[in-house]
Amino acid sequence: MSSHTVEDSGLKRGLKARHLQMIALGSSIGTGLFLGSGASITLAGPAVLLGFILAGTIIFLIMRMLGEMAVAHPVSGSFSFYARKFIGPIAGFITGWNWWFTCIVVGMLELTAAGAFMDFWFPGHPHWVTALVCLLVITAINLIHVGAFGEVEFWMSMIKVVALIAMIVLGFCLVLGVGPNPAIGFSNLWAHGGFSPTGLGGFMLSLVAVTFTFGGVVSIGTAAGEVENPTRNIPKAINSVIFRVIVFYVGGVGIMLLLWPWNQIDATTSPFVSVLVGLGIGGAAIMLNVVVLAAALSVFNTMTYSGARMLRDLALNGQAPPFFTHTTRRGLPLRALLFNSGLMGGAVLLNFLFQGQLLFALMAIILAAEIISWSAIAISHLRFRAQLRREGQTSAYRSPFSPLANYLCLAFFALLLVLMGFLPDYRIALFALPLWIMTLALIWLGQQFHQRRHSTVVAEQAPKSCPDELAARSTVSQLSN
């Protein structure tokens, strides 16, 4: 296995600025927001809005760190590449395989959620059928070319954005009494036990579910190797994150809390849809459920794209089988795509065997894996900045408040791990996290041992009288690994 880093030139820069903007806007507007936000509301009540602001600020700082490195090194390997380059090969191996794993599990989550959302129209239908149809359609789209992925993601994200804005506007009209109905007013924010009815403890615990909703946002980094003019377009896309936090998360969840008592929201269904049904706006609820389903497919689309690029980057750098380095003439990592889709298709079987039991287990696993990725970005950025200082250089797109922001983010992620221990649904993932890291580290060490042993055998078999041939064969051996 090679310890050097390969910057990828096999992919095509087929993503336009508008594609990247919508990937940034839509990558985390999925199951986490439309379904997972119900769990965070039941833990903290209206105070969950402060949780979204806090977690959103942390993720925005992480995105700025990622953006600074992506502008300097716009490659598809993203934070795996940066961990490998600025921390070390083993860090790149763990980070890359962890993000690949995250993409697979998030894809399975979104396929599972799609079946749950279909229950709105067809209660009790087989979820595995929905998962299978969605898997085939999205895989087919990604098999065309990167522009097809970008175009589909653009329009599905546009649907999510427009629908959320429309719901926020409709909600404010209902709150203020614009139209034939009397004003609902603002009293639901404090009329049912106060603004923070569960106290500081409930608010702290809600940060776990709240932070999960931001998980897909860093997938924009894996698009850096295929976006046109990355120096200009990456900063524009990342700067939109703070806009998304304010409008879509705080605005969308805030409207729900204004329209409906927080203690009557069901954590197992989409709170957005259930609130509209409760208000008697059935037509809007039907339309919104279409949007919620599209949101799940949008995130699955992004994970299909992102996971394949990460697997190919690992293969390019000797950290995955070279079989996955292959791209078609259109710059498509076909083998990586098909392999990942096959694994995500496991959601079809799991939904057949365990329908209704997967969502929260998958959410817990995903959050634990995401903490690894976010932490790797913060540490890589510290090393990146240190290298720039040694070389007397500065970045074209600087992340604010570094290094203080880096340490603040790492402390927040450590707090999340502590809080996960208090939540039964997340506890199993907390215990599995160190085992997962140890497993990846052991695989890395095993590959390193195999490489050194192979190099030694080649050296011993080389003719002693031909040092030049020995050196040449050793070099070929290293490159092939």
From TrEMBL:
The record ties this protein, via Pfam families, to: AA_permease
Q: Where in the cell is it found?
A: Cell inner membrane
Q: Which GO terms describe its biological process?
A: amino acid transport; transmembrane transport
Keywords carried by this UniProt record: Amino-acid transport, Cell inner membrane, Cell membrane, Membrane, Transmembrane, Transmembrane helix, Transport
- The gene that this protein is the product of is pheP
Provide a GO CC annotation, any one.
Answer: plasma membrane
Q: What is this protein called?
A: Phenylalanine-specific permease
Q: Which residues form the Amino acid permease/ SLC12A domain?
A: 19-454
What organism, scientifically named, is this protein from?
Corynebacterium occultum
UniProt record similarity statement: Belongs to the amino acid-polyamine-organocation (APC) superfamily. Amino acid transporter (AAT) (TC 2.A.3.1) family.
PROSITE patterns xrefs? AMINO_ACID_PERMEASE_1
Provide the taxonomic classification: Bacteria, Bacillati, Actinomycetota, Actinomycetes, Mycobacteriales
